[in-house]
Specification:
The protein is an all-alpha fold. The chain contains 3 helices and no strands. The relative contact order is 0.08.
Length: 138
């Protein structure tokens, strides 16, 4: 029986070497630039808000003087973070509305369209008058 090494890209069951890294196509297309920018901004703001909330919590537990201003600024940051997340959603909706979604028909749709076109052609051929046999036009 051949030697088998699995996870390190070694020798496979047939004795040949497998690649350690194998490229796979992306599952989804890339986000539009304005949407991606808004999403990055929202993630950064949300992360800073979480850090600020932790600071407020620990200052409150320690009884530090900074607890009250930290809690107030955390509340304000939560409002800003919510606004940033809504901005991502609105930006995406606006981008889709302006640029549309470019979809390609599936093979099933193409096949059905091809069949309908062929049926229309055959119907047109059947409706045409048969050509006159012999003789000149009167």
């Amino acid at each position: 029986m051949p030697e088998m090494v699995h996870d390190d890209g070694g020798i496979g069951p047939s004795g040949d070497r497998r690649a350690l890294w194998q490229e796979e196509p992306a599952a989804r297309r890339r986000m539009a630039d304005p949407v991606r920018t808004a999403a990055v901004r929202a993630v950064i703001i949300a992360a800073l808000t979480l850090v600020q909330a932790m600071v407020a919590f620990f200052c409150t537990m320690a009884g530090a003087w900074f607890a009250f201003p930290a809690v107030l600024s955390t509340v304000a940051s939560t409002v800003v973070a919510t606004w940033a997340v809504l901005d991502v959603w609105v930006t995406r909706q606006v981008w889709v509305q302006r640029n549309g979604v470019r979809s390609q028909p599936s093979s099933t749709a193409r096949r059905l369209r091809r069949e309908r076109r062929q049926a229309r052609r055959e119907a047109r051929k059947a409706r045409r008058r048969p050509p006159r046999v012999g003789g000149a036009a009167a």
